[in-house]
Amino acid sequence: MSDEAATATTAAEAPAAEPLPHGLGASLPHADARAKTEGTFPYAADLWAEGLLWAAVLRSPHAHARILSIDTTHARAMPGVRAVVTHEDVPGTSRHGRGTPDRPVFASEVVRHHGEPIAAVAADHPDTARMAAAAVIVEYEPLDPITDPERAFEAEPLHPDGNLIRHIPLRHGDPDASGEIVVEGLYRIGRQDPAPIGAEAGLAVPRPDGGVELYLASTDPHSDRNTAAACFGLPADRVKIVVTGVPGATADREDQGFQLPLGLLALRTGCPVKLTASREESFLGHAHRHPTLLRYRHHADAEGRLVKVEAQILLDAGAYADTSADALAAAVSFACGPYVVPNAFIEGWAVRTNNPPSGHVRGEGAMQVCAAYEAQMDKLARKLGLDPAEVRLRNVLATGDVLPIGQTVTCPAPVAELLQAVRDFPLPSLPKDGPEEDWLLPGGPEGAGEPGAVRRGVGYALGMVHMLGAEGTDEVSTATVRVHDGVATVLCAAVEAGQGFTTLARQIVQETLGIDEVHVAPVDTDQPPAGPGCRGRHTWVSGGAVERAARMVRTQLLQPLAHKFGMSTELLQITDGKITSYDGVLSTTVTEALEGKELWATAQCRPHPTEPLDGAGQGDAFVGLAFCAIRAVVDVDVELGSVRVVELAVAQDVGRVLNPAQLAARIEGGVTQGVGIALTENLRTPRGLIRHPDLTGYALPTALDAPDIRIVKLVEERDVVAPFGAKPVSAVPVVTSPAAIASAVRAATGRPVNRLPIRPQAAVVNAR
Questions:
Q1: Model pLDDT for residues 235-293, shown as the tens digit of each residue
Q2: Cβ pair 615, 490 in contact under 8 A
């Protein structure tokens, strides 16, 4: 047999290639996965421009001080320095902020937190810029910092707007109601940093028209553009933000106080300017999770059914308001958790202190209260002598129930089903079932603990979060879908921050139009706004806009065919790249139908409106809700107080699985972030000063800390008001897993565990 014949025979006998994943419901891989894996994906820190200058920012070493003078003479005189800017050089609005614009671009009279920007420098070398920033002489008069949020009520105002940012008094039901069983608790939640692994960096390039282009890893480019334009004293159309690769975001990716000096320096010098923040600057500059103090009293009847919940919630907003008003609304609204509570009386406050600023971090507000109300449910179970899961099952929320804010739950709320799924999932085997040398003791490999001191605990938690904005936020996104030469392109300003929006957009177009090759255009502010990338907004709002635009293009594609055969477009379907009619008369390919055509459509998605909470904390404030149940299994060395999370079993309502692999990764990532909140992550700020602002002093969970994560059930009960019926998935595991881990540690030790992260002394039992 000839070589050619042998080759032909082998090819013929070879199995057919596996078809590529396609459309909604498939595990379509990220389009940029290979570039990110190979290290060729361009992030802001990788950008370059001809004539580039380097920036550095001088930050306050004090948490609270009066500025007596700022002398930039020595810095300006240094060779290679091209510009030095302070508060006097801000041509436009001098304040900015994500939610409330109360933060100065540069401090002028008073420093209100450690790391607040004082001045910025542009120079021809990064070392020169740093040395010049250090050469700016600032004379301070240190002041006594207010770091205890409880002191903020009586302290002198730290800000012209006062110390109280927001107060929400929630009143629901009968204030005189009481139960036979009463449990109380005081809880503290520490300060978590979002700790983005990728460097916070940006490039500003001046434009010939006197404007500027900012290349940033922004997650809300249009809002950042508007803030920058106001600061620079320019019309919005002369400031453009181009979104670079975003190296992950579980919060607002970049501090606006980082972006604004960059643009000011580019405008002042007429040259491109680049700024790459050190890890210390990241810790000093961007917002953190709100440290929270919570006091709770739960009333229940003799059967364990909740009668009334009373709570006080105090959020430490740090020096500036940022999004603290929104976080407080979530905390107060979800203070009772996914349980039926006929009577609730909650007081919530967010106050300014001289601590580092707090702001949007995944699950803000909801995470803190979840840790507290679930601790209360454990106390209730212990006092009644009931199984912790059983107490929760007797009180769970369902569709049609009413939240303490007076809003009826109209979306799917399969909370009981989720809890039963994790409760019934088989427990992991005990260490004694294996050889002792194979045990993974608390404290890591080769831990110092003794097997005899290790106790196992099992705990439960139920969590809930809201989707999209709340309290009247106008949620809207715009998308355009273009088809040319058989290739579809999506234009939407929804930023891909690791949540998988670009993959989802491709799947939507594939599903709707039957086109395999779909590209998502880079994001900039020349496109219509899509809003911030938080709370799963882009899955719902931007995904909905893409779907509507794709359906409009589908109608354009099918109308000529339907007209030709005398039928409506509803009688035609697109499947596997083919267009067929209900009766089989028409059968053609999408490629043939598109030949010589260029089609496009633009559409918006705007969910139904919500309303602000009123003076009694009542109102239809949320568009939709998502729920999660987690069972945690931990091993605790009760002599050392070290904890190892053995397994986390997760059940979640997701509406509809759009991309199985992506969904699993989002849940696993959220759960792991919760492990850090529960056990290791606490940004310590004695007297308002950040201690050890680096990833050595701030302990993120590593692969060795990640437990086995078992996704035991995904409930696909579609939310009829959501596009595709899907719910965002990544925030609610973050909210729930810390509470579940704390519950398991309580079960193992019998200790109250009323603080997160769990300190070793809280898990020590004096039993030996």
A1: 999 999 999 888 777 666 667 788 899 999 999 999 999 999 888 988 998 889 999 99
A2: no
DSSP per residue, 307-346: EEEEEEEEEE-TTS-BTHHHHHHHHHHTTT-SB--SEEEE
Do residues 730 and 669 make contact, with C-beta atoms less than 8 angstroms apart?
yes
Give the integer Cα–Cα distance in Å for 247 and 43: 7
Amino acid found at 65 = A
Euclidean distance between CA atoms 530 and 93, whole angstroms: 24
Element containing residue 224 per DSSP (H, E): helix 221-232
Cβ of 88: how many Cβ atoms within 10 Å?
11
Burial of 92: CB neighbours in 10 Å, binned 0-12, 13-18, 19+:
middle
Looking up tokens 């004695």 gives 686
For 5-36, write each residue's pLDDT tens digit. 333 333 334 344 455 567 788 888 888 888 88
**Nearest CA-CA partner of 147 in 358, 354, 324, 356:** 354
The percent helix, strand, coil of the chain (3-state, each to 5) is: 30, 25, 45
Measured distance CA(677)–CA(698) in Å, rounded: 11
Residue 494: DSSP 8-state = -
Cβ(58)–Cβ(119) below 8 Å: yes
Are 360 and 252 in contact by the 8 Å Cβ rule? The answer is yes
764 forms beta bridges with none
